[in-house]
Amino acid sequence: MLLQKNILNLSNKDIKGRLKNAEQFNGLCYELLVGANYASNGYDVAFPETAGGRIDLQVETKTHNIKAYVECKRLDYRALWNTTAKYLLKRLTEQNLNLSILIEVKRPPKRGSEAKKIAESISEILSETEGKNTKEDLEVEFKVLPEMMTSKQFTEIIRNFENYDYFVWSHWAKPTDEDILIKNPKIVAFKDVGKIKRAKKRLRDNLKDAYKKLVDVESVHLKVICIDVSSIIGKIGVKIGEKSPKPEEIDFLTDEIKNWLLNHEDLSAVILTWTKLYVDSLGVPAFLVVESHPIISEKCVCEITKIPTFSGWTVEVDITMIPEPINARSLTNIGALLADSGFYARALKYYSLAIKVDPKLKEAWNNMGRALNELKKPNEALKFLEEALKIDRNYVSAWINKGISYAMLKKYDKALECFDEAISINPSESKTWYNKGLVLYLVGKFKDALECANKALELNPNYKLAKLLKDECKRVSGTRK
To answer: Which three-class secondary structure state does DSSP give residue 70?
Structure first.
């Protein structure tokens, strides 16, 4: 958006320099995110700092007669939880232990050696009795988990860790008709008990630094400080469709900011922003949402409608996980797992990537067609299914899905031709007989449909849909067999 509106110039010397510096790059990304938000809400946006100025952002809208200067800061929080967790998960795997480990620390590890030392101390505690144990600056509580459980049971356990600063789990998952079975679960969670105290100090430093740049701005203009507190809060994981409360850290930081604003009355507002990660029922990341919380100066409360806050700001960033190294079959398998759980639109992305990686992988073309059928797009599905059959004319699954596409389009003769072709290749596939029977039922050939349903059940006695079709054919035709 910023590039399209010519607000941002990537050839700018200042921007090019910040793009090459890892620390400055993160700060630049946040400024651009804030600027894009204002631009998408009708503000004219400029980046004075890129032209030699002191201020990060200048936003203005003549419609509402608002002009504001904005400084952007990030409240960084560094902790190598992932390194510590990696050591612990490796230990649990090597010893075939299924545990949930809850760890409280007074100071988080910032170097690899510190992370390893904490992991070694925790490993020693695991030889103790189950429950709470204390060693040096660590308080560790661990519990034995069952070897097998359902995803519902596992989710209930995970809920207990929502207030921890970092938690990670590993397990094997196997989808079933009713649920997802979890095997060999392992959970590691960390809580930094001194985090808020240290965060408040860094917050005051950030506010002081931002205020120095805004102090020279004319008092007639609004002055706003935006602070990204995502690293303090951590990525909040929320299942799609569920609500989550405002992070408790926001309340602590809000109290600190309110006190600070009392001594800086010329500042209009401080806006805290953070990210929330939404996952699907499998725990697969779906999208990020940026949320915000404005703290308005008491002097400006009467002009709250003029404060350029992020009211209603939601930035969704779609996430597609890519296995490393990129492998077309792995991408197809991930897509199939999503499709089996009903996430057909998400599955399409993986199939599409698989096709780009390996255009000769027939399963990717076929699964794409099947997913499009599920999304009620049979015309599109046929294109992909034809590609699968160009690769392998004896691909039974593609003939079945092609027949389903034609049936959805009410082209029943063509559908039956597809099913007959599949039967000629492999007469032992129960799905073909069921789908042929279903089409015959739809065109009123109940006796023939019943024969197909019986054949499907002969091949697969547990085929529930074939049993339903058989019962329906018997009902409408008055046949007992």
So the answer is: strand
